[in-house]
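Reply to dn_fold:

You asked what the input looked like. This is it:
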Amino acid sequence: MKKVVVVFPGQGSQRPGMAKDFYEEYQCAREVFEEASDSIGVNLKQICFEENELLNLTEFTQPAILTTEIAMYRTLEKELGIQSSAFAGHSLGEYSALVASNAILLADAVKIVKKRGQLMQEAVPQGIGAMAACICSDLLKTDFLKLVAENEVEVANFNSFEQIVISGKKENVEKTCKVLSENIAGIQTISLNVSAPFHSSLMKPIEREFQQYLESFKLEKENSKFVLSNYTGDFHIPEELVVNLTKQISGSVNWIKNMEILAEQKLPIIEIGPNRPLSKFFSTMGIEVQSIINTKSIKKLKLN
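and this is what came back:
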């Protein structure tokens, strides 16, 4: 077995045709799609493999990405004999990490993230919230956090030392972007095409219902100790798994801390998913990450 660290991207990484080549070539990938589709009564092949408007509807995006990532992961596990000593995922990707670590069954996980996506979509009326990516070198050494707090928005994602995403009410996000541009030299702010202000306190009203739903599943919590929590930044404490997954919905994604802890493992890091956003975040820390986005990339993988 080749020891590695595995990371999974989250929502926003989806693309039409994702994992179709895995499905066509590998039996284990086909089994993943069949099991996940049967679990939620949705044809995930149709959503993932063809042009389909459901792919960008959060309720369906989340199970589609999770299924894609687990189909890819199980192929690598079977074909290359990889064994991960640690897992992490960005936002939604944390659930892929928990399935890969055997903390949550695949059939349960697709139900959980479908519910998560549905609740997140319904939490805030369309057009009320917004998110924006803020890009600048050494962002945390500027007045960024102070200015964000003063303008009633929140940090959704600490993606890297060069990119932080903010979230909140649309008018506040727009005002904050203007203030940041006026006060931080060289900063670039980019409005994100999202349907809701994810990872902000505007998501808090759905947390109780989501926690109750999570608690209805039998989780192998002990296996979560191999998975990093976005909410705490550190490895999951098994007895706190449900609470921290619930808080992750409105809390910041502490991806910088996740990356720092994974770097300490001193093992090859592999990003598995339909696109490769996480490898770019790692590169800002001087860490090389190999990406698996299609079957061709399996042949290029170097684990020595």
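The radius of gyration is 18 Å.
Hope that clears it up.
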